[in-house]
Amino acid sequence: MPMIAPVSELRNYGQVLEKVKPNAPVYLTKNGHGQFSVHSIEDDEEFEKARAMVRLLTEINKGIQSGEEQGWLSDEDLDKHFIERRKQKEKMLMEQKAEG
Fold this sequence. Notes:
The protein has three helices and three strands, in the order E-H-E-E-H-H. By secondary structure, the protein is of the alpha+beta class. The chain starts with a strand and ends with a helix.
């Protein structure tokens, strides 16, 4: 059962915070309507992990769709791509060392 309290209870915020537990936020109402939630850091971390996972899965799905529409790279093309990227990065690092 969700814990719901009027925002006016924040006058005694210590009592409100004691009610907050992992997976059990406190919902605060203002004028009888839901307005805020107070949740644990643990819940916030879990939310951020889930959000990152959704972003990753979205990018994976874009890659799959691109491969199906435009064709897949061969292993050799993939190797060439990353070898070239490594060479570019090494060149950039050498230039930075020469400047610094």
